[in-house]
Amino acid sequence: MVSFGRSMFCTDAEPYYYDFLCGLDTGIPHAVADHIRQCGHCQAQIRQLEAAIADSEAQERSPQEGADVAETLGLHFAHLGEDVTCAKAKSFLPVLLVPSLEIRIPTPITVHVDHCRRCAEDLEKLRELELRPEQLARLSRLYTAIQSDDPQMCRQTRAKTWAFACASFEGIGAKSLDHMCVCPRCRRRVYRCREKILAGRQPGDTIPGVGLCSGISMADLFEWVVPYGRGDGNREHACDGDEAMPAHLQACPECIERMQMLHRTIYGIAERVDSGVSTVYTTGHEAETNGGGAESLYCGYPVHVEVAQRDPIPAVIRFRPMARMREALGRRVANPQFRPVLKAGLLAAAMIPLAIALLVNIQPASAIRVQQLSDAIMGIENLHLKRYDRDGTRVVEELLMARGSGLVVLRDTRGDTLCDFKNREVIVRHLGRGTPERAVLTDDERMSIMKAISDTLGLALGDAPRDGRLQPLAPDAAKGIGQGEVAHQLTWPSKSSNGLVMQRRLKAFLDPGRGLPQRMELSRLMPGEEQWQLPDTYKFEYPTRQEVELDIQSLFPEWQNHSGDHSGL
Predict the structure, then answer these.
(1) Which one is predicted more confidently, 389 or 21?
(2) What is the SS3 assignment for 22?
(3) How far is CA 442 from CA 74, 399, 419, 422, 447, in A?
(4) What are φ and ψ of residue 311, in 5° steps?
């Protein structure tokens, strides 16, 4: 008898789907092979995998690129089930920008970037530099490098600091170049040297190679600011072989300042403190049995993501080197649960059964349940929500929230209210009154405010039926859709206050990576009318907890942050 439902045996069979598809039956246990042949669910999953492979091969990715993607994907999944912090994610950021290594499924690393505003900002800073793929790969290795105190190397390279700052690498060995990129102490010396060079420039000083500036990109400057991994500092490795470049760079104030800006960007990311955001990614059967709202951000994937917000801690540049990460991956793959399926030149993601589970469960752009969207909104940790009037020009209501800190600000036309739930305090500033009122937050007030928060969040969905489904809109059919947004729409009948039946419409413009709304519009069409009335518009922003506290401090200077910093932040 053929089974069309998913059973416990389907979970056991998933790691063998690829082998079955390729006709490698000899490596599949007989019981599993028999189940796959008879199971309608497994057959459907294998057909989806076959279609995914065909689609991937149509992307014109070379076999070498496929192997590189597989290795990159393997390094991502080496962190399955682990706490992923900024320190772990940092070394992956540059490689996420390499077009040929594009990751099309959520991984333990990409979901951290989805939830960590600081890492997302770092990624955008690197994107703006427009570095070349080889440079991004070297930068990734730099962020991965272990930095241990090496006073002897610092002493050996100290005399070469000025030459390094002047982009004059001739005579500086590869080991010294790499050390001066990795060592924070030596990097600071280089930066101070350039500052002295810049301060010493006088109007009218001769600048060799006048005219070079316009043709020097950030990718060109990268070779002189971050020569990590490029070899000995001799003429063979000079940027484009241009012998005039070092002389120009050490004399041109504009280029020196651009070098300093690049230095601050690259090494600022390396040295910044950890944001405190930690994510744990699980998938497969475990994801299906776990609760929580974060997985709703990855609709169609069997993914569960737990997000925690801890106090920020200093980032130390002690990341695991690639060799250790590969060893960890090898140990994980040795476990039968993670047995890889190997086939050169085919879908890179299919080289890991976990990725297969994601692939065969991926859904194309499809309808989204209103309840699913509601759960995602209600589960947001840090939020800045603005509701605009029907002209879309004036903010009439705001909600600022940091759940981890127990802080909420409600703003409307009557005034502003700050609720500090952890310290049971409320501050109210009525419009037109100068002095805010401060009081202890009672249990009844707490419940009332919690309901107000829920109502405010729920207003963005209106009275949309929770079992309704928002259908995807084509980009050309969604007016005002922004870059990087996908639009969904639901229309339903609703009774007005005078008993007439009108049509209501909800449009949700979502970030496709996280599935969270960027903005939402609620419109109505009254009986006998032909045009939809101007919508209520809601805009969603997702700040960090620290950014919320900073905004609260600016709105309520009298508020005191009780977390330990008595200046407020």
Answers:
(1) 389
(2) coil
(3) 52, 21, 11, 12, 9
(4) -65, 135
Amino acid at position 326, single letter: R
Q: What angle do CA 141, 142, 145 make, to 5 degrees?
A: 85
Mean pLDDT value across residues 137-149: 82
CA 113 to chain CA centroid, nearest Å: 2
Which pTM value belongs to this model? 0.53
Mean pLDDT is lowest, of 336-345, 364-373, 469-478, for: 336-345
Measured distance between the N- and C-terminal CA atoms of the chain, rounded to whole angstroms: 66
State the CB neighbour count (10 A cutoff) for residue 31.
11
Q: What pLDDT, in 10s, does the model give residues 398-433?
A: 999 988 888 999 888 888 989 998 888 888 888 776
The three-class DSSP label of residue 384 is strand
In CATH, the number for domain 371-555 is 2.50.20
The rounded distance, in Å, linking the Cα atoms of 383 and 548 is 8
| SS3 state of residue 434 | coil
Query: 């922003």: which residue's tokens?
Result: 541
Separation of CA 101 from chain center: 16
Tokens of 123: 């990624």
Report domain extents, the chain.
8-57, 63-130+275-361, 147-271, 371-555
Report helix, strand or coil for 440: strand
Residues 6+ apart with CB under 8 A from 486: 365, 472, 509, 510, 512
H or E element at residue 480: none
Beta strands in 202-355 (DSSP E): 277-283, 303-309
- Nearest residue to 529 via CA among 502, 554, 563: 502
